[in-house]
Amino acid sequence: MIQLFSISYIFYFILHSLLAHQSTKQVLMKTILPLPYYRLFFNIVSLGLLLPLYWMYKQTSAQFLFSTFSFSSIIASICTLVGIGIMSVALLEYNLAEFSGFYQLKNKENFKANELKRTGLNRYIRHPLYTGMYLIIWGLLLLYPYPVHLSIAIITSLYLYIGTRLEEQKLLEEFGAAYLNYRKEVGMFIPKF
Fold first, then answer.
1. What's the rounded Cα separation, in Å, for the pair 167 and 144?
2. All domains in the chain, ordered by first residue
């Protein structure tokens, strides 16, 4: 079951990326889905596709890959909690209505263009949500060292890194020199000192 879960999880991320890709957005917006509805549609589909993944996850075996020690459990718990904290703070710094897609529905005619966010946690790291996610997935693997969690940690880490590179290309096209300077000054996942 772990192999089927892993393949399905990879497929989930591929589909997620395809739906987020600019050319897919343009095709869907020209044919069936106007811009104000796209973000909400994207989020509903993304969450809906997690349901079968969750069912498969529940079917996997719960054999430990290695024994945990009290010290490693403490470190893993701290990583997980710090990751949750970073993600929570980062989400609160964003417009959650826009993030979910409800802002676009409410403001169909007055929909504003994106702006480069350099405040809050984005002053220190360019992708705080992803930093938090890395800490959570690897912390949970250390807390619960099951094969399925190793699969989740590896696949998610690769996806986040590749996805971030693609997202940064898009941001560079959108914001040009402003994003190039931001990228030089601020670390991707870890603050520059």
1. 31
2. 2-185 (1.20.120)
Q: Do 120 and 89 contact (CB within 8 A), yes or no? A: yes
Tens of pLDDT, residue by residue over 140-152, are 999 988 899 999 9
Confidence of residue 113 (pLDDT cuts 50, 70, 90): low
Q: What is the pTM of this model?
A: 0.83
Q: Is the pLDDT of residue 128 over 70?
A: yes
How far, in whole angstroms, is CA 11 from its chain's centroid? Answer: 15
